[in-house]
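Exercise 7. Given the components listed, write out the predicted structure of the assembled complex. Treat all entries as one system.
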Amino acid sequence: MNDTERTGSLPLPTIRRYPLYLREIKAMISRGDLHVSSAALAETLDLDPVLTRKDLAMAGVPGKPRRGYPAQELENAINRALGWDSVTDAVLVGAGSLGQALLGYAGFEEHNISLAVAFDSDPAKISLTFHGVKVRPMADLPRLVKRLRIKIGILTVPSSAAQACADALVAAGIVAIWNFTAVQLVVPQGVIVQNVDLAQSLAVLSHAISSQGQA
Amino acid sequence: MNDTERTGSLPLPTIRRYPLYLREIKAMISRGDLHVSSAALAETLDLDPVLTRKDLAMAGVPGKPRRGYPAQELENAINRALGWDSVTDAVLVGAGSLGQALLGYAGFEEHNISLAVAFDSDPAKISLTFHGVKVRPMADLPRLVKRLRIKIGILTVPSSAAQACADALVAAGIVAIWNFTAVQLVVPQGVIVQNVDLAQSLAVLSHAISSQGQA
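Answer.
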């Protein structure tokens, strides 16, 4: 997905910046601020003030001249725009080291994502609980995902199992996959895949260091 | 960093695709293949064959007409281009749930990144060992990072501590930061920052689902 594409009703770069604004707005509210100016937000986050003004305007809360936006209303509007204003259920497939870690990721609770259950093919992991989430056998996936009407599937399985697990999730009714595997998943139209490939990110870092060493 | 930028000697999109090729080439070698064709790689990975041909050419291994590239030489060349052909030492700062998980990330060993030590400010975590890596107090960071000539710092601390920890890493001689916090770090020129913001990624997913619901 490149930065000129849109998902849903907002431009992708705006969606990516919304969590940054949210954190700052929350910090301002907790310091007792009742209003937030786009100029102050832009300065704190080292962003172009024109960009920030446009981003905030898209949240649909009218600002007041010289005072800025009502802080709490703006926080609520951004949460609503991101779908973080109501609880969305998710499951995780692959309770290995990365999967176990993600089950403890504080961002899920913070953003109203509720992890209902995890699945794994390793019999030794079944019935274990990580960060309060129980691991179930893969065979239970279709039934449980359907019954609980789960929307999000988080994929942290080995590459070799990635496509098959994605297929199982989609067949069970999942509409969005957070893909931590290196596999470019093939999914039907309408299913959203968001990729987080740590090896690709690490490659950029390693290459830059090794090039420095040669210079 | 956008896709037209370069880090080091290769274009960024090429660097990002190299780990994908590597996995496929390794799989082909383990199946007994002696040669790899760019067309076959492109097809397996669902990439533009012209793009893949250019990417592989940049690795500097001459291909043979009709046979393709010698597989093992190509694997070695890509590893060399990414700086994954020799061991690079890294430290992790912030041994919370995400930090502990990353300590168990198999990609480090696979790509010759050796995690020497982790640091945390929580006295309860000091001297604990996660996935074979010992946690040390923050006060030891400057001395240890300098003495061990560490190149990479992995940052998994809360946002409020991120810039101060980055400053400490840079002061101790770190040249590259893998930043898992949401903070846009300010670092001196020459220090590389690679950001992995899970909340930004999750925002794209959540927004897409909530927009679908409205449609």
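Discussion: Residues 1-6 of chain A have pLDDT under 50 and may be disordered. The two ends of chain A are 33 Å apart (CA to CA).
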